[in-house]
Amino acid sequence: MFTGIITGVGRIAAVHDLGSSFSHGKRLVIEAPAGYLDDVGLGDSIALNGACMTVTTFDAKGGEFTVDVSAESLARTAGLDRPGPINLEKALRANDRLGGHIVSGHVDGIGVVSTMAEIGESWDLRIRAPRELARFLAYKGSITVNGVSLTVNRVLDSADSCEVWINLIPHTVQNTALGSLVAGTPVNLEIDLIARYVERMLATDPQLPTKALT
């Protein structure tokens, strides 16, 4: 479980094949900020651009760790198959502040940046999300973009997609990897967890019998 508040910007330094076929995944070598791995252990969860991954090896002194990403995860995420900057967030502890919103680290779809433009002191970020995610996106609702908890300022539906407008303050641009986004960049999207359960409840027939818990 995460909050969407990025705790460090790292870099995918190397990508290694775990096999020779398309059914094999990749091993990523991640360079983390100084001191970032001091409280990390083997098997810990760290979100990479919003995708929850398991630490398989780490070198706290050298500031590097590795994760193994399955072919399925690679097919359903963006930005995990090549070197470059990446947003990092360690898993939420029970006594941590919930500064963003409840984030599971499970990517629901891949969006595409349609606009990334500086306006005044802020940045106008617009993303075309898959049409199937449209019902989960609402004005002033929450969305996770590459692991960052953000507020939706506007939603525009179309026949084949849904465009969300987001305002990025300078702090967010300077302290996450979102500053490197340009039009055409694919991004990982996670919908609000509460919206997911509301949709399920509304879609379920209330007349269906429920089995008592024992």
Written description of the protein model:
- This protein is mainly beta.
- It folds into two domains: 8-90, Elongation Factor Tu (Ef-tu), domain 3, CATH 2.40.30.20; 109-201, Elongation Factor Tu (Ef-tu), domain 3.
- 10% of the residues lie in helices and 42% in strands.
- It has three helices and twelve strands, in the order βββββαββββββαβα.
- It has helices spanning 71-75, 170-175, 193-203; strands at residues 8-17, 26-31, 45-48, 51-59, 64-69, 84-90, 109-119, 122-130, 142-145, 148-157, 161-168, 186-191.
- The strands form two sheets. A six-stranded antiparallel β-barrel has the order 1-2-5-4-3-6.
- β10 (148-157) and β11 (161-168) form a beta hairpin.
- The longest helix has 11 residues, at 193-203.
- It is globular.
